[in-house]
Amino acid sequence: MKSTFAKTLGLLGLAAVPAIQATNPVITHRQLADPNAFVFNDRIYAMCSNDDDNGNGYDMKSAVVISTKDLVNWTDHGDVFRTTRDAKWAAGSYAPTAVAAKGKVYMYFPNIASGVGVLIADKPEGPYTDPLGKALVSGSTYCPMAWCFDPAIFVDDDAAKSAYLVWGGGTPYGSNFRGIALNADMISVKGSTTTPNTPSSFEGPFIHKYKGNYYLHYPVNGSSNIEYGMSSTSPISGYTRKGVLLPNPTLNGQNINGNNNSHESVFEYKGNWYMMYHDRRLSTSSTYKRDVSIDKVEYNTDGTMKQVVVTAGMPQLGSFNPYDSIPAATMSAQSGIKASFNANTWINYLVPQKSGAWIRLTGVDFAGGALNFQVAAGTTSAGVSVEVRTGSETGTVAGTCKLTSTSSSTTLATTQCPVTGLTGVKDVYLTFVGTTANANFAWFRFQGSSALRPVEAKPAVSRQVDYTVYDLRGDLVRRFTTSASTNSVTAWSEHGHSLAVGTYLVRIQWPYELEVKKFVRAAD
């Protein structure tokens, strides 16, 4: 028999989600490259080179983090690392790499092509600290190759969670990578370097592990295909070349990479394997402006990898939750949008460049219905508003929020307006009116009607209180127990702080009654 809580969720109208297709590239309001993807708190994050820094050459000095939970709607967290701010000893930052390990996020970045530095953060969005104040690897011992860059970090699944770093590029092709083990602190090396067997390797190594085998993949000199080798013994040695993993990105018979180089990462998410890579779908005329895409990875029964098929995008996983605080630079498509990161507020603002600019959110599950829309923004201008529309950027208006003027564009005011017609699963468009790069949007969210009521239960004999925490999709995220003398507000304050920012439904089993309440984990 279903629990009372499960029945309540059913009454809220949680629905099956159609297989909505994503669009490659995953980000279109800016240009990024060298995506290094990893999973943190059940979400995909990718640390990318920032091609917005580039003119007529590679001049990257920052890294941008993007993330998604459903492969379709992506959040731009901004340039959370910039050498001039976070590692002033470095002259620039080319292709970065990052991993979540040991309760932290470790990022490794190349000082252009002369060494590799390391940074540490509590979460992928930063802020990052520089524990060494200098390169982790540099000099002729570690960098005999022409280009000492393109690091890749790998953490094994052994008991010690052993970590390894590999890097390199340029001549001598085919023996231009070096690998080394890291100490437990992740910011110092141990032992000597190895030279993995990587025939014709050009640059951009990356390591992953699948069913006991290690895989090292990299673009090759000449064709710029991504090839790979396998090793059963070590992540930094023992490799045997297996062949092409990703041919130079081509879609519908047309090369979408300017026949240029690519850079990739492979990772597992919710039981499936994916590759993120860069191409030049939107910028085939420019070598220095690249775009990030994602496609599926598959294996043969013998462990070898099938060639990745380049597509227009991946199906959406699950649905998008509108009842959470959503960073404003979250979208599946856009027109007329830019983003601007402010290191003082540590917010990546959405900045519409023209009146009529819009963003789309795909596969939004409003369940039983939304009543209100809230948006936090700063603008010194009058006449700025946000229209909530369905179907298209000019579709049916569900509600309009007129912004309140503030003293500056980084002084935020929260505006709320009623919405109608938002039930079930829909594509939603936010259309911005009166905007001319004169408003900074920080976050938005929808509010729904609460169908939750205290429910009578049979008396319990326990003198403790059991809390079961669910997200708004009905997925269990945490359990904890307190004494009966602790009220629910205090209990949430003590135990809810470790959860991600958002809204949660909490089933509270008191000694003599059962209660269901809604709590919000606000941003720190």
Brief write-up:
This protein has 524 residues and is mainly beta.
Describe this structure in words.
This protein is mainly beta and 524 residues long. The protein folds into three domains: 32-246, 5 Propeller (Tachylectin-2, Chain A), CATH 2.115.10; 326-448, Jelly Rolls (Sandwich); 453-521, Immunoglobulin-like, CATH 2.60.40. The chain is built from four helices and 37 strands. The strands form ten sheets. Strands 1, 2, 3, 4, 5 and 23 form a six-stranded antiparallel sheet that branches. Strands 24-27-32-29-30 form a five-stranded antiparallel sheet, with no helix packed on it. The protein is globular, with a radius of gyration of 24 Å. The two termini are 39 Å apart.
Q: Output the CATH class name of the largest domain.
A: Mainly Beta
Described by strand count, sense and barrel closure, the largest sheet is:
6 strands, antiparallel
The figure for the number of domains is: 3
Q: What is the overall silhouette?
A: globular
Write the layout of secondary structure elements.
Blueprint: H1 4-11, E1 32-40, E2 43-50, E3 62-68, E4 74-76, E5 81-82, H2 83-86, E6 97-101, E7 104-110, E8 116-121, H3 139-142, E9 152-155, E10 163-168, E11 177-182, E12 189-194, E13 206-210, E14 213-219, E15 226-231, E16 240-246, E17 250-251, E18 254-255, E19 264-269, E20 272-279, E21 291-297, E22 326-327, E23 330-331, E24 333-335, E25 337-342, E26 347-352, E27 358-365, E28 370-379, E29 385-390, E30 396-402, E31 413-418, E32 425-433, E33 439-448, E34 464-471, E35 476-483, H4 488-495, E36 502-509, E37 514-521
Antiparallel strand pairs: 1-2, 2-3, 3-4, 3-5, 4-23, 6-7, 7-8, 9-10, 10-11, 11-12, 13-14, 14-15, 15-16, 17-18, 19-20, 20-21, 22-33, 24-27, 25-26, 27-32, 28-31, 28-33, 29-30, 29-32, 34-35, 34-36, 36-37
